Automatic annotation (TrEMBL):
Cofactor(s) the record lists: glutathione
Pfam families on file: GST_C_3, GST_N_2
Chloroplast keyword on record: no
GO BP: glutathione metabolic process; L-phenylalanine catabolic process; L-tyrosine catabolic process
Chief location: cytoplasm
Gene assigned in the entry: Gstz1
Domain of life (superkingdom): Eukaryota
Species, as recorded: Prunella fulvescens (Brown accentor)
Protein name: Maleylacetoacetate isomerase
Metabolic or biological pathway: Amino-acid degradation; L-phenylalanine degradation; acetoacetate and fumarate from L-phenylalanine: step 5/6
SUPFAM superfamilies for the chain: GST C-terminal domain-like, Thioredoxin-like
UniProt subcellular location: Cytoplasm
Length: 210
């Protein structure tokens, strides 16, 4: 497999965690979203992913984009350890939390949107994350065990940790979100989350390395 990734991309980090958890080794091709006006806009990368976004994963003779589509494929082809609970209610909760982050928070504060916001980008990102986290904190109070849904790491957790990293980067006050903070702390102790962390990637700038 070949993963096209950017160290700071939260969508790429979700996929890196899934690959690490499932023990799938891969080659990493960095795509710098800022350098050269954004390497994702090159004709070569557009041919690979017409949406001109990371991640993209070449695997088993196909190229997939969109982090949840990639993670679902990995789940179906490498079922252990599972990232979706067997219980239908818990599985629905996992998907709900993942969608909440992937659709309701992250796209509103990603690079392409922030470019449009000009000087207000920090305030905009904080507001988007805060309103999303207020709802997420409430949801997690009903679903969480050690992790987002019960005591097993799931697809929801793969979305949570990168979104908390975004929140910290945009200087969001995490005080009002004790459940999110507690789960994130537990996740960052896991090896798969450590080795896939933005501070430990081949394309991480020296000053941001762990």
């Amino acid at each position: 497999p070949i993963l096209y990734s950017y160290f700071r991309s939260s969508c790429s980090w979700r996929v890196r965690i899934a690959l690490a958890l499932k023990g799938i080794s891969y080659d990493l091709v960095p795509v710098n979203l800022i350098k050269d006006g954004g390497q994702q806009f090159s004709p070569e990368f557009k041919a690979l992913n017409p949406m001109q976004q990371v991640p993209a994963l070449k695997i088993d003779g196909i190229t997939l984009s969109q982090s949840l589509a990639i993670i679902n494929y990995l789940e179906e082809t490498h079922p252990n350890p599972r990232l979706l609970p067997q219980d239908p209610k818990k599985r629905a909760q996992v998907r709900m939390i993942a969608d909440h982050i992937v659709s309701g928070i992250q796209p509103l504060q990603n690079l392409s949107v922030l470019k449009q916001m000009g000087e207000k980008k920090m305030e905009w990102a904080q507001n988007c994350i805060t309103s999303g986290f207020q709802a997420l904190e409430q949801i997690l109070q009903h679903t969480a065990g050690r992790y987002c849904v019960g005591d097993e790491v799931s697809m929801a957790d793969l979305c949570l940790a990168p979104q908390v990293a975004n929140a910290e980067r945009f200087k969001v006050d995490m005080g009002p979100y004790p459940t999110i903070t507690r789960i994130n702390k537990a996740l960052l102790e896991l090896e798969a989350f450590k080795i896939s962390h933005p501070s430990r990637q081949p394309d991480t700038p020296a000053e941001l390395r762990a």
